[in-house]
Amino acid sequence: MAEASIYEIHDPRFRQLIVTSAGLDELYSGCRWAEGPVWFNDANQLLWSDIPNQRMLRWTPESGISVYRQPSNFTNGHTRDRQGRLISCEHGTRRVTRTEVDGSITVLADRFEGARLNSPNDVVVKSDGSIWFTDPTYGIMSDYEGYRAEPEQATRNVYRLDPATGALSAVVTDFTQPNGLAFSPDETILYVADSAASHDENLPRHIRAFDVVDGQRLANGRVFCLIDTGIPDGIRTDVSGNLWSSAADGVHCFDPMGKLIGKIRVPQTVANLTFGGPRRNRLFIAATRSVYAVYVAVSGAQMP
Predict the structure, then answer these.
(1) pTM to 2 decimals?
(2) Over 70: is that where the pLDDT of 4 sits?
(3) Residue 196 has what DSSP assignment?
(4) Non-local CB neighbours of 91 within 8 Å, separated by 6+ positions
(5) Which residue, 48, 50, 221, 267, has most beta carbons within 10 Å?
(6) Does the keyword Hydrolase apply (predicted)?
(7) Contacts (Cβ under 8 Å, ≥6 apart) of 167
């Protein structure tokens, strides 16, 4: 059975979230470091980043693989705003951008308090249009995923960009290396991964949870869960409030209280994931050189 090969059941509830007869479909292999998958339901397409190869790739069920953008400025994470436009984090230019309908690029943020950002990594958009993103130093640590440089920011922050004024505020400033982030389905909680153990095993490898106050501030930060194999990178929630995280051995699923309830084993280290497909019940997984997909029995919470 497929369950024996790719599924680890840590709690019986996980069985209700998976299709045990479904296996992993490898959509593409040939990346150097696949990252940032984002689904466009209106175009029936998946976009993702191949960071070191300086490109963004596209997959459609009808046409397969094509290059969406090259060079990509070492783009990493992506999401869509409530108008359906692509929002991207660029390591190379150390900025967050929006791709307009006509294909032109609008810079949304590249500085905070007069200094350049580190290297924006991942991004989500709240229902009020505000843009929340993380800013670790991965893109300036070497010339592999960006351009080596000294950080200009004293800390590695989580930011909120106001949709009306364009004002940028640092909502959390005590992360070691903030990475993936995701809202709970009701947007009362923001989950943020700290992946600092990627370069020092004594540093964090956990996901923190914060209460969202007045839609603008974060409070009551606490450790939500630990990743027992590898690090947390990209994360997403489903409509039932479970959190799905990347890890070295696949995708880990945690219940809303932070208990590990199951894993989907993946042959390569997973960097990021997103729900997609017409019913948002297909999990697309960016894992090192490849992008995989597997059908699940729950829909993703992210909109659009």
Answers:
(1) 0.97
(2) no
(3) G
(4) 51, 73, 74, 75, 76, 119, 120, 121, 138, 139, 140, 145, 146
(5) 48
(6) yes
(7) 161
